[in-house]
Amino acid sequence: MLTGYTPPKSLQGMNRLPASPLITRALTIAEQRLGMDELAARLGATSDTIRIWRNGHASMPERKFLKLIDIITDLDVDWQAPPEA
User: Fold this and answer.
1) Which one of 45, 55, 65, 82 has the fewest beta carbons within 10 angstroms of its own beta carbon?
2) How many alpha carbons fall within 13 Å on the CB side of residue 30?
3) Contact, 56 vs 16, CB < 8 A?
4) Could you tell me the CATH number of the domain that includes residue 36?
């Protein structure tokens, strides 16, 4: 199970952006396979930033998205399989 996340006080009460289902799923799969610390290291981002992207509190920068695609490609993900609970 993934760890819970509470946005920082500076983000609480802010409107969420619609989270991209592709980014949300890719981040979730990568975290399940690698663990948050390894995913954060590979993306060059903090775990809090990754949670903010996944929850739609901020847009994921294009260069980070492309890195995420590289990570997912290396993991050889079966996109047809249901996400792990």
Assistant:
1) 82
2) 27
3) yes
4) 1.10.260
